[in-house]
Design a protein that fits this description.
There is one protein chain. This protein has a single domain, classed as Glutaredoxin (3-Layer(aba) Sandwich). Strand 5 and strand 6 form a beta hairpin. Strands 2-1-5-6 form a four-stranded mixed beta sheet. It has a two-stranded antiparallel sheet with strand order 3-4. The chain has 222 residues and is α+β, with helices and mostly antiparallel strands.
Length: 222
């Protein structure tokens, strides 16, 4: 019997440091697993700071959660070390936060052209590793062109309103699943991993998916 196909939906925001970390942990779990012959991944949008203009992340976090600048920097440095364990280079101190709507729209466009995964990685590395703002069209367009999106398609996207409704629906769907933050991973619409959990949590979820698929196959063979 062939291995089952699994569909994984990932809700994330491009400025959430835990989202790239969680993505890497899922990828490690998938590499370590031979349970599935085919894995389809779809990235869904979540906006942590809708309609916010670019501001220093430290200022945004202080306004939302309190704490001193020194405490926030210490947390950022701790996250940088955790990211390094996943072979990710983070430079969080001094970053800005803002609405990522335009970047998510580009990811939707990239999905149509089979480039969503590579563009997502480009956005993550630009923001977390290179310190590049990913909020306005002037900085986003070159990143999109880097991975193969067509200049005319990018310009047309920014000139219109495409994918805004889909992005808003992504956010509502996540809330219907009972989650209010990211990253959030949904496997075959049934098994969820909430947050950048250790790799064991992803491995356990994949094993449960495989067990469920095996049980269903056994039922139909009776």
């Amino acid at each position: 019997m062939s291995s089952p196909v699994v569909e994984i939906q990932i809700w994330s925001d491009l400025i959430c440091p835990w989202c790239w970390i969680g993505k890497r942990r899922l990828e490690r779990a998938l590499r370590n697993s031979s349970l599935f012959a085919d894995i389809k991944v779809r990235h869904r949008a979540f906006r942590l700071m809708p309609e916010l203009i670019p501001l220093p992340v430290i200022d945004v976090l202080q306004q939302r959660y309190g704490g001193s600048a020194e405490q926030i920097v210490a947390i950022q440095q701790r996250i940088e070390k955790i990211a390094a364990e996943e072979s990710l280079i983070y430079r969080l101190v001094g970053t800005q936060g803002a609405d990522t709507l335009q970047a998510h729209r580009l990811l939707y466009l990239a999905h149509r052209q089979g480039l969503q995964e590579v563009l997502l990685e480009r956005f993550y590395s630009a923001y977390f590793s290179e310190g590049t703002p990913i909020f306005d069209t002037d900085t986003l367009a070159p990143l999109a062109l880097d991975v193969g999106l067509e200049r005319t398609a990018v310009a047309a996207l920014f000139a219109g309103q495409d994918f805004i409704a889909e992005i808003e629906d992504d956010q509502r769907r996540l809330q219907r699943y009972g989650a209010n933050g990211v990253p959030f991973f949904l496997m075959d619409g049934r098994i969820a991993v909430n947050g950048a959990q250790p790799i064991e949590a992803f491995s356990d979820a994949l094993a449960q998916l495989n067990a469920d698929a095996a049980s269903q196959s056994a039922f139909f063979l009776r």
